[in-house]
Design a protein that fits this description.
The structure holds 2 protein chains of 2 kinds. By secondary structure, chain A is an alpha/beta fold. Helix content of chain A is 54%, strand content 12%. Chain B has 3 domains: 177 residues, no CATH class; 58 residues, no CATH class; 170 residues, Rossmann fold (3-Layer(aba) Sandwich), CATH 3.40.50.410.
Chain lengths: 316, 503
């Protein structure tokens, strides 16, 4: 890391400076999150981020990219994702085309060759060209390794991919290299990328993968932190509304709902209420905008029936 | 190797957090980066490197709080009141010694900070009112004055006022008596005694009694002093043992109990252990599930994988010749479980069903049947209810009546013979005690011929199979496999084999 510029060095000097840096990019976080970024940066280890949807897992990777001023390479995982889409693919069209062209010029190549042995020798000379980097189409993982400046690699929703893909990642995550049978091992060009993996925990990630990562669990924020987040993201919100809104959301999280509102929903709701020029939470407006924070009809009904008592608590 | 850290990791492992060697190394580099200075930062940093699930994080928090109970690790510690009544002049050196050393090596020493302080404070109170003779009414008041030097090693150590050396001696003695192996709380007194003995208590006792009978005032004064300090030491050792017990034994005891439960006969398990055993079952099931969930086979159906096909056909001059398909099929076993739920076998059925349904991830197609005389399908019950409730309902509804295997087999044949094909595994759990009724081996043969495997699990031990009204001899001929199955270990092995062969 000798060639880091002064900015980055100052930025990563301590957990506090990283936290401040993230906050300057409007990502308000706990010490735990800042520590994770700090460790990941210095130990060059991937971070596996888990937590309920909408608490800012993907956002953390994005903000880190702007913070360190590095390009973000993102790979959205899904069932059936394989090496051809994640690491590399041969440009088979080009390969085919070149074979056709070559067929016609074969005579020229072999001209003057004495005997079978020499002909084969000549063919060998350019035989490997078809499986060289010229014909290689890099996919996100390979791109991240070949990045000149270093980069942030985001593997989003890793839990959606198959077990096979996880195993495929192991080499990449521990040694920052991938093996391509025809070419050999490709290592990170300069800086190994800073890797963020996110998971919604729809299935258990294998131990082998977990072992290679730092594990960060982002829970729902407490009231104070959430209030600061709202303040950073929706600065134009009136302070009284901000307080009530966060209190209201926090009390919803204690209820037995199918899907409790996350930070992203809180932010959306704050924006909605600002748009509607609300000064404080009044029952009618809340009822009309409940669908911003709750995504299931039965949740909306459950909250709707208790709305009066919930709002009453806020006043007190 | 950093001893504090390795001991902490040992404690974590005891609390059921899985930590590999690689992760230990990670933790070391984390500590190198963060240092021991800031407790909060250390905790946050280690919480990233060691525990890897939400559950483990909770356990980690708990362990960390218990293990690192010192208020501040390095330097910043205030000079503490020394345990002595008169040793104020040595305070400063003492505090420094403890502070400087504690960060370096011994975890035990660090964790001693808390209780040591407590001990110190108590003594300080005594210091304020020495004449009241708090601890011993008959103690004669000898007043301040010169004391003779103690002769025994432990006495010397006590009079030196060096807590560091004392705790070190305590740790060494603890190690010598294998304190880490402490398992149940009744052993606490025993270990305290052993450690005191290891530190040379006998010698000290002798010295104290000698000194107290001495004619010389300085000797008697020393005797008094040593006696006080001996009490203080005992308290320290007790605290130390207590702490080690909490760290090591609590979890070990739990594990011991689990290990025991795995081996004990299922019918002997008491009601109060059901919850624990359920945990064990889930753990075992999870292990099996993760072992077997990955078997997939490439299936020649579905969409053509164009890139792969073209790439593989490069060798054939671009002529499409060797086709590659996209779809991968997961082959899952079809399992029919038939459980005898009459009184004698009901308990086994309970655990077998629990096990099978805990494996839902890898065996989604379990159909289960319960019978004592008449047979009924209970699959629905399990789909709609939680496992425990479903089991309770099954036992309530079907457990009455005397066992009739013939009738049950006949019912089973009527209900689902058509569904049985060469991918089906049938598991029958029962003791085959048919009350001398018709065993209907003809149906058994039919099932045997149709299915892939027929496994008979008998909770009775093998020697009892061919006695009395047991029809095992007849049924065994029509089973691919017949096993004795009366503990969780058996059950795990059988289901493991089942998954291996079926997939």
């Amino acid at each position: 890391m000798a060639d880091l510029n002064a900015d980055t060095t100052a930025l990563t000097a301590s957990v506090g400076s990283i936290k401040a840096g993230l906050e300057s990019h409007r990502y308000i976080c706990s010490d735990q999150i800042a520590t994770a970024v700090f460790l990941a940066f210095h130990l060059r280890k991937p971070i596996l981020i888990e937590g309920p949807p909408g608490v800012g897992k993907t956002e953390l990777a994005k903000t880190a990219a702007t913070l360190f001023d590095l390009p973000l390479i993102r790979l959205q995982c899904y069932e059936g994702l394989d090496e051809a889409k994640a690491i590399y693919e041969w440009k088979y069209g080009k390969q085919l085309l070149y074979t056709q062209v070559l067929k016609e010029t074969l005579d020229e190549v072999l001209e003057g060759a004495k005997g079978f042995r020499e002909s084969v020798q000549r063919l060998h000379e350019f035989g490997d060209i078809f499986f060289s980097e010229e014909f290689l189409e890099p996919r996100p993982l390979l791109k991240a390794l070949k990045s000149e400046t270093g980069c942030i690699l985001l593997l989003d929703e890793i839990d959606k991919s198959d077990h096979e893909f996880e195993s495929l990642l192991l080499e990449m995550l521990s040694d920052f290299q991938v093996s391509i049978p025809e070419i050999g091992t490709i290592k990170a060009v300069r800086e190994p990328p800073l890797v963020f993996l996110t998971s919604n925990n729809t299935r258990e990630i294998s131990d082998a993968l977990k072992r290679r990562c730092l594990h960060l669990y982002i829970p729902f924020p407490d009231a104070e932190l959430e209030q600061r987040i709202i303040h950073a993201r929706v600065p134009e919100i009136p302070p009284e509304l901000e307080r009530q809104l966060v209190q209201f959301i926090q009390s919803l999280r204690d209820m037995d709902l199918k899907k409790v509102p996350a930070i992203s929903e809180t932010i959306d709701w704050a924006r909605t209420l600002v748009l509607l020029h609300a000064e404080s939470l009044d029952p009618k407006m809340v009822r009309e905008t409940l669908n911003v924070i709750l995504k299931f009809q039965e949740d909306i009904e459950a909250v709707g029936s208790e709305l009066t008592s919930l709002l009453h608590k806020l006043k007190g | 190797m950093d001893r504090t850290l390795t001991q902490f990791i040992r404690a974590l492992r005891n609390a059921d957090i899985r930590i590999s060697t690689a992760e230990t190394l990670d933790a070391l580099s984390v500590v190198e980066l963060v240092g021991y200075e800031d407790r909060g930062a250390l905790k946050r940093a280690l919480a990233l490197a060691l525990p890897k699930t939400a559950d483990e994080k909770v356990a980690f928090d708990h362990c960390f709080e218990q293990f690192f109970t010192f208020d501040d690790v390095r330097g910043a510690r205030q000079p503490e009141p020394s345990p002595s009544a008169e040793g104020d002049e040595s305070d400063e050196q003492d505090g420094e010694g403890a502070g400087g050393n504690s960060a370096g090596a011994g975890g035990e020493r660090d964790s001693q900070g808390g209780p040591a302080d407590k001990g110190g404070k108590k003594k300080k109170q005594k210091n304020k009112a020495p004449i009241e003779g708090l601890d011993d009414a008959v103690e004669e008041d000898l007043g301040p004055g010169p004391m003779s030097t103690p002769a025994s090693a432990l006495g010397e150590l006590l009079m030196q006022n060096s807590r560091v050396e004392l705790t070190m001696a305590m740790a060494a003695a603890g190690e010598a008596v294998d304190l880490q192996e402490i398992q149940v709380f009744t052993q606490k007194g025993l270990y305290t005694r052993r450690i005191m003995d290891g530190m040379g208590l006998a010698e000290l006792n002798r010295e104290i009694s000698d000194l107290r009978e001495s004619r010389q005032v300085p000797d008697r004064r020393l005797g008094q002093e040593l006696k006080q300090r001996r009490e203080w030491l005992r308290e320290q050792v007790r605290d130390y043992v207590e702490r080690q017990f909490l760290l090591h034994a609590d979890a070990t005891g739990h594990r011991l109990r689990e290990e025991l439960l795995r081996r004990v006969k299922l019918s002997n398990i008491e009601q109060r252990n059901f919850r624990l055993i359920q945990e064990v079952v889930f753990k075992m099931a999870k292990k099996l599930a993760s072992l077997h969930s990955r078997r997939k086979k490439v299936f020649k159906r579905g969409a053509l994988n164009v890139p792969r096909t073209l790439r593989h056909n490069m060798a054939y001059d671009g002529a499409i010749f060797d086709l590659h398909w996209k779809s991968i099929k997961i082959d899952r076993p079809k399992v029919f479980a038939i459980c005898d739920v009459s009184g004698s076998v009901a308990n086994y059925a309970r655990f077998m069903l629990m096990f099978l349904y805990s494996l839902e991830e890898v065996m989604p197609k379990v159909r289960s049947f319960a019978f004592s005389s008449d047979l009924a399908e209970v699959t629905d019950l399990f789909e709609r209810n939680k496992i425990e409730d479903a089991i309770a309902k099954t036992l309530r509804d079907y457990a009455g009546g005397s066992t009739d295997y013939g009738q049950a087999l006949q019912d089973f044949r009527k209900q689902c013979l058509d569904d049985i094909d060469n991918r089906t595994t049938i598991i029958i759990l029962g003791d085959a005690r048919n009350n001398f009724g018709d065993p209907r081996t003809d149906i058994m043969k039919e099932l045997y011929d149709r299915c892939k495997r027929l496994i008979w699990l008998n909770p009775e031990s093998r020697s009892g199979w061919f006695t009395g009204d047991s029809e095992m001899r007849k049924y065994i001929a029509y089973s691919h496999q017949a096993e004795e199955c009366n503990s969780l270990v058996h059950l795990e092995r059988i289901v493991g084999n089942l998954l291996r062969t079926v997939q």
